[in-house]
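Task 17 of the worksheet. Students: predict the tertiary structure of the chain below and write it out as structure tokens. Keep your answer in the requested format; marks are given for formatting as well as content.
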Amino acid sequence: MRVLVVEDEPALRQQLQEHLREQGYVVDLAVDGVEGEYYGSEYDYDTAVIDVGLPKLDGIELIRRLRGRARNYPILILTARGDWQDKVTGLEAGADDYLTKPFHMPELLARLNALVRRAAGHASPLIGAPPLELDTARKEARLHEQPVVLTAFEYRVLEYLMLNAGRVVSKTELTEHLYEQDYDRDSNVLEVFIGRLRRKLDPDGTMQPIVTVRGQGYRFGLSTQRAG
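Model answer:
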């Protein structure tokens, strides 16, 4: 998952980057509202964290501009303690949730994970596609109720495909959402990962959990259950 973080405080910005990367997010950083507007308009994100008190362009106006450009990914705003007006104004501008500073990092991570899965139509952290189940909170997969040992990257590929079940995901989209910008994006390497993931999820080749759509990309091949 790719996340945009717009935060002018260096220490907090670094903290957010480190913790989000540990959770498997690809992180783009912006230090002010103008830079945030550029990133948020030019690139496609799964979610964004935007501080309200930004230099050059405040967070509320940034959100308004992004929504005005039909950038509809979920946005979490960060506000100073007690500034309830910012919370209300931010939500009215198009933010999906807010968090008051200072905050605990696990809460921010939980809120972001919830925003991403709800944007995909899943209220529960468990995404079922029998006999496969994905636990987005624990970052685990189970097949026939047994754990599947996945690398961090294999999990991210599976999570992205399952959250986007029902549509074809191109190789370009996968690499943009799963790799850092300076990573060597070799499509052949991605094919190797997909092949290895298929063998783990479908050892006898009967389920076809990941389908290759020739010339277009990949599609999750099982029906997901959108639990409430």
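Marker's comment: The mean pLDDT is 91. The longest strand covers residues 75-80.
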